[in-house]
Amino acid sequence: MLNATTKNIIERKALRVNAAKTCQPIGAMYASLGIHGCMPHSHGSQGCCSYHRSHLTRHFKEPVIATTSSFTEGASVFGGLANLTQALKNIFTIYNPDIVAVHTTCLSEVIGDDVPTIVRRAREEGAVPEGKIVIHANTPSFVGSHITGFANMTSAIVKYLSEKTGETKEQVTIFPGFVEPADMREIKRITKLMGVPFVMLPDTSGVLDGGLDGNYTMFPKGGATLPEIRSTGDSAASIALGHFTAHPSALTLESKHKVPATLLEMPFGVAGTDEFVQTLRAFSPGGAVAPEIEEDRGRLVDAISDMQQYFHKKRVAVAGDPDQVIGYVRFLLELGAHPCYVITGSKGNAFEQRIHELLDPVVPDAKIKQQSDFFELHQWIKNEPVDVIVANTYGKFVSRVEDIPLVRVGFPILDRVGHRYFPTVGYVGALRFLDMLTNALFDKKDRTCAEEWFELVQ
Ligand code: SF4
Q1: Could you tell me if 100 and 232 lie in one domain?
Q2: Could you confirm whether 110 is annotated as catalytic?
Q3: Is residue 149 part of a domain?
């Protein structure tokens, strides 16, 4: 059954098979979890909310909280005003969050529910207690992907909550984009080592990678706090890491409060991390790079030079979220590999343009596509194989059928554990990616090579 993919490629316009993306509210829910004391709320049917929560839970292996407007047939016809009003009453009475972050679903978007008006009326009716906050983002899943949902919710947080007092703070707002909590932790570690005061938005470290101490806390201690988020309007600058998931929020902050934005790509690999560290230098007292960071970089460069022979011109297929795929393609080129198939399930001309810019001089015949899927990638691979696949868990089908090693990165990873604990951003994260890639190639060689090539030492 796994091998039903045909070699013969027929151009498809309206059909996706084995999509390389998921729906907008999942990204919005993930972004909301990066606010301390926030309850993500799904304005739609119970099924949507259950799916989004379980998908995030399976990836992070942590309980993911969220509430739902629980639409039934009545709400589907007459709108969700009564449901959302009752939901807000229940949420504040039972769970008592500081903030409720409402995102819409396909159903409430098709009905055309006006969430701000519903919330205003709910407040007038006393469903929202004094001092409590309700924000919202429109996240219709029939356009965009989880990436769009993440960006929409992060921008909504800025729109609703950032404030300017007129007194500029010596701090930088960092928008990390849709990355793992471990990645956010690493970005914070680098920023702290550089001595730069900052607010990270959103920040899911300490929320979805928390430790076990025997007590369940509905709102873990992590996440950007309300005073921190408010203060982003007074930040001296912002740094946004990722065209699709971070730049829109930084531009929102810039247009709302004139906080100048530095727009970077995600800090993957040597050059990607160098750009981030160089940007931080401008805000760092003394402007020097911390010795620990230089040592991390040195170790990475050493590992690359030790291992480069194994990557030279290796054909790699890369699939995943656009910001991360751009970062991995950059790093693979630094390693001397040839990313020859590069896809994202999300929409974005900027993605294709950027990948062309990177690959045209080195791999001019590379296949590059936005809004693609794993079926199409499989067809390309059937016609001309690759040495390794870099993708999320869904790449395992192609990997198994074609006996090609899979390096699991991105979202979702449903069948492994390390992504929650170990970063792939920064020099340290690049070292981990290098380790995964090298071992995947060695494992395949050990499994399949002729006896005379079977080596104890690599
Ligand atoms: S695609 Fe739409 S209907 Fe389906 S789970 Fe996502 S939001 Fe709900």
Answers
A1: no
A2: yes
A3: yes
The protein residue with its alpha carbon nearest to ligand 1, atom 6, reads 23
The answer to whether 151 and 346 have CB atoms below 8 angstroms apart is no
Domain-terminating residue out of 264, 290, 316: 290
Residue 382: which CATH number?
3.40.50.1980
The per-residue pLDDT for range 330-370, each reduced to its tens digit, is 999 999 999 999 999 999 999 999 999 999 999 999 999 99
Integer angstrom CA distances of residue 343 from 215, 268, 389, 431: 42, 18, 11, 24
Going by CA atoms, what residue is nearest to atom 5 of ligand 1?
A: 48
Going from the C-alpha of 185 to that of each of 162, 180, 190, 202, the distances in angstroms are 23, 9, 9, 12
Is residue 282 domain-shared with residue 333, that is, in the same domain?
A: no
**Burial readout 394-417 (b: 16 or more C-beta within 10 A, e: otherwise):** bbbbbbebbebbbbbbbbbbeeee
pLDDT in tens, 43-88: 999 999 999 999 999 999 999 999 999 999 999 889 999 999 999 9
Is residue 278 one of the residues assigned to a domain?
yes
Query: What's the gap in Å between 49 CA and the centre of ligand 1?
Result: 9
The whole domain housing 69 covers 24-161
Q: For the residues 315-342, what does the mean pLDDT come to?
A: 98
Tell the residue nearest (CA) to atom 4 of ligand 1: 48
Question: How do residues 259-309 score in pLDDT, each as one tens digit?
Answer: 999 999 999 999 999 999 999 999 999 999 999 999 999 999 999 999 999
Query: Ligand 1, residues 22, 54, 141, 148: which to mutate, most atoms within 8 A of Cβ?
Result: 141
pTM over 0.90: yes
User: Rounded to the nearest whole angstrom, what is the distance from the C-alpha of residue 206 to the centroid of ligand 1?
Assistant: 28
307 and 259 within one domain = no
pLDDT band at 153 (very low <50, low <70, confident <90, very high): very high
